[in-house]
Amino acid sequence: MEERTAQRADPRQLWAEAKSVVMLGMSYAPDSDPLAMLGQPDKAAISLYARRRDYHDVIKGKLKSVAGLLAAQGGVDVKVFVDTAPVMEKPLAQAAGLGWQGKHTVLVSREHGSWLFLGAIYTTADLPVDEPETDHCGSCTRCLDICPTDAFPAPYQLDSRRCIAYLTIEHPGHIDAELRPGIGNRVFGCDDCLAVCPWNKFAEAAHETRLSLRDEIEGLQLTELARLDDPAFRTLFAGTPVKRTGRDRFVRNVLIAIGNSGRHELASSAVSLLRDSSPLVRAMAAWALIRLDPSQGRALAGEALAMEKDEDVRREWLALRPAPELPA
Asked: Known catalytic residue: 230?
């Protein structure tokens, strides 16, 4: 865990009385290959940060401890933020010397690579500032080149509309058909651009026990996840960032992964969800089925269209007839 102080806060931003911002960075660097699950298409790939206790809770506790000491010793006011307000954490962290924003737009540290959680303490204390960090990306473009959906139109620019992390976590609606194949088996988030950063070779595995990986959500079968109803979803992912996405969006992602798996035996999982209560789920069940078993999809399309009232789901059936065969 590192704490640094950024230059004086802009009084027009967030809290007019603040004079300094203390930035905290906490490593969550893995001790194994974070992309290993991508080679197992029948299993779910969940972003490294989400396979553990929600970092918001852990970091907020750390920040409150530091802020409490600052307030008690200095007689100053403090406010703590961990994704709870429009705080520009990455520019502030760079200004405080914790790292620099890499070409993938994520903060990179010479000590911790791309694996840092960030939090901020705004305070009325007039603190000495640390030197800002400079950019050390050089000519490297590994993070840009690996992106499965070409979400980087240029270095240091991210098109969130194409970013798998945004699409699988934040995007509330149907995911564009052209982007679905690139998602692969990533059902929550994406670590590709983070994992290939050369600066990660200097990162030691994180030791915060409250951020330990949860074994029960490691390497889950897509077929198991497709069966989740809302109570089961909430139970399985309780206390993790996955829970906030909600069951319907999560199962939407699972069905995209099933459709991308190339495993014809997984088509039954899609069939079982064709009459789900959620249009998001029904639409991706249709897409996944026709990807994996076009003949069965065509056989069921007429009945499905006769019963289906949701126009988005209907478009999935209509747009995917006849469906292209998957490569062997």
From this structure: no
**DSSP per-residue codes, 136-171:** --TT--HHHHT-TT---SBTTB--GGG-HHHHHHT-
Q: Is residue 91 part of a domain?
A: no
Domain span including residue 175: 142-204+215-319
At 130-166, the pLDDT tens digits run 999 999 999 999 999 999 999 999 999 999 999 999 9
Cβ within 8 Å of residue 291, ≥6 positions away? 259, 260, 323, 326
What does pLDDT average to over the chain? 90
d(CA 192, CA 290): 28
Cβ(260)–Cβ(181) below 8 Å: yes
Instruction: Evaluate whether residue 256 is within a structural domain.
Output: yes
Of the CA atoms within 13 Å of residue 31, those in its CB half-sphere come to 6
Whether residue 310 lies inside any domain: the answer is: yes
Which tens digit of pLDDT belongs to each residue from 197-239? 999 999 887 666 566 667 788 889 999 999 999 999 999 999 8
Cα–Cα distance measured from residue 208 to residue 240, given in angstroms and rounded to the nearest whole number: 16
Choose, from 31, 42, 54, 83, the residue flagged as catalytic.
Answer: 83
Q: Is residue 295 part of a domain?
A: yes
Give the Cα separation of 305 and 310 in Å (integer): 10
Mean pLDDT for 259-272 is 98
How many structural domains are present in the chain? 1
CA angle 39, 40, 41 (to 5 degrees): 105
pLDDT-derived band of residue 282, with 50, 70 and 90 as boundaries? Answer: very high
